[in-house]
Amino acid sequence: MSATDELPGTAEREQTGPIRHKGPGPSESGWVDPRGRGHGGRALALHRITGLVIVLYLYLHLGVLSMLLIGSSAWSSFLSVVTAKSFLAFEVVLIAAVLFHGLNGIRVALVGSGIAVPRERALFWAVAAIGAVAVTFAALHILGALS
Amino acid sequence: MSEEKPPPGGPAVTQTGQYDIRRFRVYRYKRGNGGERFDEYEVPVGPHTTVLDALRWIKQHEDPSLSLRFSCLHASCGTCGVQVDGREELACVCAVQDHGPQITVEPLANLPVLTDLVVEMNGFFARFPHEHPIIRSSGSPAEDENGEVHLEGGHEVTLDLPSAVPLHHHPLHHHHRAAPPAVDFVRLEDCIECGLCLSACPVAATSHDYVGPAALAAAERLLEEPRGVRRDDVLAWASRPEGVWRCHVGLECTRACPAEAIPAERIMALRRELMFGGPDDEEDRQ
Asked: Hey, is B21 helix, strand or coil?
């Protein structure tokens, strides 16, 4: 059948419409959207976000260490800034991110290998509880309440 | 709110004697008629009103141009899947009373929108390549020049026959006159093919070659009940890069599945087989 013999609307029907995605932006952000997610989806999103935070910190850490190349005075003045209580709060956030990423990684490994699938929800709450206790202890220690 | 427009899903029984009114934000898209938008409708609802009831009420009383898809009205056909407040639901069994005063209804995610709340399901089935071990021919046998009857599609695994007998062994097989070739279709075991799992899957949102939870769950089902399919073929198919290893254990597919096909658990079972299964397991099964 030639193009002129086609039924009206045939070409239009072949067009695809938009693809809806969750998330605030393009499809690549679809995993971020917390709407309608359960604990598994939210844990996955938090796992990725904390992973990005840790990678960002790694590069930041390497950049900061490179200040040693400038000299001891630059390093000392920098230390006076990062040991301030307000800055130490960021360390608590970093520890929380590392703890969640590590503990949830163990959970994902156990569930994802089919070993602990029936215990998946209990594992999630165990991760949350252990992480909360550890972060609280770390925060008290870092911020000086335990010293 | 008026006598001419009774609420769908039963009479209203609010304490004030008035209808409970919910505001629906409904996704709209018409091809060639502007872009995407949300339209708002106020819908009187009763205690048993479902989202599908409300959408049909909108279509009947407010906006006949609203397009939606439904069929069985009892969560069996899987055609009325939508996102309700961001969560995948079958609209026919999604109670309005479980949601707040404003309810947002969108089409399923990760599939092209045809119009309004209707998505193109080919995007769902296109995730099942033809070598998927679960693919079953719809049974449109065709005769070759020697009078032999062959299935369209290549796999001899199943037909919708009374027993799981491969076609060329079936007593009716050689007496079947060749029918004109029809389009083959895919049937998945333990699944109503609604596409909710694909919409909910955070990995499918970013990876278009991921075969998705439904296909993997169907493959795992074959391990439980092989029906003549070779176990190694199933595992080889599932272990491809776009298969089980692409899952990131978000578990949203199981949460979304209205048929309790537990796709996430089945994906994990496939992984367990791939990692820890071996010849001994196979011997045990035989």
From this structure: strand
